[in-house]
Amino acid sequence: MNFFSLIQKKGTKPIPPAPSSVRKEVVYGLPTPKTITKSKLIRPYSAPPALRKNVSKADRPRETTPLHKNGRRRKQTGQARLLSDSESSDAATDLPRKRLKVVGRKRSSEKRQLRCISAFTQADSVASPLVHAADIASLEKGSKYKLAFPQDPQHHLVKLRYPSASQHEIFDLVEPTQSDEYKPLDDLKEILENILDYCVPPEDAANFKDDSHGLLRRMKRARDKRDGPSYISLVTEWNDAMIRWRESGLIAQVLDGLSVLDLRLIERILTQTYARIVSPRVSTLRQYENGTDNVYGELLPKFVSEIFRITELGPGHCFVDLGSGVGNVVLQAALEVGCESWGCEIMENACVLAELQEHEFKARCRLWGFEIGDIHLQRGNFLENTTIHQVLQKADVILVNNQAFTPELNDRLTSHFLDLKEGCQVVSLKSFVPAGHKITSRNLNSAYNILEVVEERYYSGCVSWTDAPGSYFVSRKDSSRLHAFAHHDGVGS
């Protein structure tokens, strides 16, 4: 069970805003009433065993245009021209047309160092703060857990080695009495599978994954037979192999050859962190004020990864999550992209969990041997936080989960976009530009005039509060339209 889905469980999920408040908005960046949409949807994630490599634009699949009802492709239209509130259509025919850009910047060409070099030194073997699996799942939790190998009750603790030279993690070999609780043996199994898929030379990994005599197969047999001594012996065999691969430099060689991290591996590290920090305290997130801006909900990892892709967020960029909750997206950006990652949250309980997650996440990334971007978490109202206000001026991508924001908060936040740098992209679940908005001589100071909006779609399983698909919006700051309007209309001349 993915722990990001725990908040969707009956009795633990926060109540989402009323369905009637969720509407499809038609976004007008210009006078011509045309909705800007894209036909490309977020597909359910299905990762191959091998890591995906960076693909150049020339090799990317061509985007298709939407189909007309007769089955033919619609002709793509360029951006509508700017009209003043007084001019005739004939008077504006000389204005240049400009094609709408879906993404405003390219990924940084800077090569990212994925392996944390210091985590592979012997000096890193000193223990750092870490919530072990045995801390959240053990016989000490009373009736919640029972021995996985009851025939050998005296030996139920094992130490597991990860790719780096950092400390091991302690697992209590227990099983939950309730199916929705954390399952340490399943976690251990998935850790081994991920390490073999992404951190070990393919030939060595193939031996360990052999269906007949591989270590994973033998561990499954021992577990099925309730053979505790054999299972513990196989964990020791694994640890010896990890030490051998690390000391020979094989793991470092594999990690140094990576250019990106697969989403499956990213989700494993995020899930481990969430399971140890948020899941035991998830009930504290029920405290919210319905009908206000303080409603809790999460964007799930595959949706977040798609946002990073579509905005072309890169290692040298700055990412900001306004209303960052327990910090999941901030942590994912730091690991998946390696960029400078900021978050700001006003709800006290979420802030506490976010800070605890940050510490655990850093320790876990070190266990796995990965370098991450700088993480900065701020408490308080993002409209009043002076640090966040300064960071927004250098941000490349801003995420705002404004699904439950009041109209007043959306309007106040939009005014802050005037200070964004050109090309900055704002991703939101509701459009900041009202339907039907057009530039006129009476609203030249409106922040709506500098936002170029594209509507995108996501499939089910992308957000915590519903399984239904929906829309989100990418607003790019582009002042050229306003300047062109002012120049043509003679404003300021």
The largest sheet has its strands arranged as 1-11-12-10-9-6-7-8
Q: Major sheet, described briefly? A: 8 strands, mixed
Number of strands: 12
Question: Structural class of the secondary structure composition?
Answer: alpha/beta
Amino-to-carboxy terminus distance = 64 Å
DSSP helical segment count: 13
Strand proportion? 5-15%
Radius of gyration: 25 Å
Task: Give the helix proportion (percent range).
Answer: 25-40%
Question: What is the 3D shape?
Answer: elongated
Q: Secondary-structure element order, as H and E? A: EHEEEEHHHHHHHEHEHEHEHEEEH
Poorly predicted runs: 6-108
- Mean pLDDT equals 80
Summarize this structure as a short list of keywords or feature phrases:
493 residues, alpha/beta, two-stranded antiparallel sheet, 13 helices, 30% helix, 12% strand, elongated
List the helices and strands and how they pair.
Elements: E1 37-41, H1 133-136, E2 145-147, E3 157-160, E4 169-172, E5 174-176, H2 184-198, H3 202-208, H4 215-224, H5 228-247, H6 250-256, H7 263-277, H8 301-311, E6 318-322, H9 328-336, E7 340-345, H10 348-368, E8 375-379, H11 386-392, E9 397-400, H12 407-416, E10 425-428, E11 451-458, E12 470-477, H13 480-489
Parallel strand pairs: 1-11, 6-7, 6-9, 7-8, 9-10
Antiparallel strand pairs: 2-5, 3-4, 10-12, 11-12
What does this structure look like?
The N and C termini lie far apart (64 Å). With 493 residues, this protein is an alpha/beta fold. Helix 7 (263-277) runs antiparallel to helix 9 (328-336), helix 7 (263-277) packs across helix 10 (348-368) and helix 8 packs across helix 9. The strands form three sheets. An eight-stranded mixed β-sheet has the order 1-11-12-10-9-6-7-8, sandwiched between helices. A two-stranded antiparallel sheet has the order 2-5. It contains 13 helices and twelve strands. The longest helix has 21 residues, at 348-368. It has helices at 133-136, 184-198, 202-208, 215-224, 228-247, 250-256, 263-277, 301-311, 328-336, 348-368, 386-392, 407-416, 480-489; strands at 37-41, 145-147, 157-160, 169-172, 174-176, 318-322, 340-345, 375-379, 397-400, 425-428, 451-458, 470-477.
